């Protein structure tokens, strides 16, 4: 984000050619990690809610480590193609003063990355959430029809409510991510030549909003996050008060010594 702020303030890239090649690797790599992580979380929710008996067999510590490794390896591995100029190249786009994926020999992986890196995950996430909410709706209808049954069903209902709340939070994050990043993806695919520079600049600013709004989504959607934020702020206030008291004591001691 600081590098992007410098670029917008100067309306040019002033940090050298080497950093201009490295910047898009980390930027697009992190975007890919975010998208694939949301896909992984969505499939996790799908398995937990629709196939709870298989969940513990599928999501073992070893399989989770492998999934995380695969997400990071694929996200940054695909960016090595333009970095080493195997497919396309990385450099400065003069029209939008942005360091991005450029064509080499009239080809680049930009459209492939954006279409298959966004379109396919969006389809997977949309289908998964549709199945999740359809199943939850059916389960709630059945529960209401048999509300006089054992306490086990009531316990299951409350557990389902917690799962649904978390699922809804993840869905909100996904929708906000789409709102923030979809304009950037469309701008890079549709206007590949950078004919509408202002559109690319606006899309870049909107993409960085994702980093700002996510903490608020977590705080609103999760009671655990609210408690964590409250605890953190309380500790910061307590630390600040202690520092002020220590400073006040040191000033008083200094005045006492001077008086003596």
UniProtKB/TrEMBL annotation:
Transmembrane segments: none annotated. GO terms for molecular function: G protein-coupled receptor activity. Pfam families: 7tm_1. It is found in: Cell membrane. Residues 1-218 form the G-protein coupled receptors family 1 profile domain. GO terms for cellular component: plasma membrane. The keyword Ubl conjugation does not apply. It is a multi-pass membrane protein. The keyword Cell membrane applies. Keywords: Cell membrane, G-protein coupled receptor, Membrane, Receptor, Transducer, Transmembrane, Transmembrane helix. InterPro entries: GPCR_Rhodpsn, GPCR_Rhodpsn_7TM. It comes from the Eukaryota. PANTHER family: B2 BRADYKININ RECEPTOR/ANGIOTENSIN II RECEPTOR (PTHR24228), PROTEIN TRAPPED IN ENDODERM-1 (PTHR24228:SF71). Belongs to the G-protein coupled receptor 1 family. This is G-protein coupled receptors family 1 profile domain-containing protein. It comes from Aedes aegypti (Yellowfever mosquito).
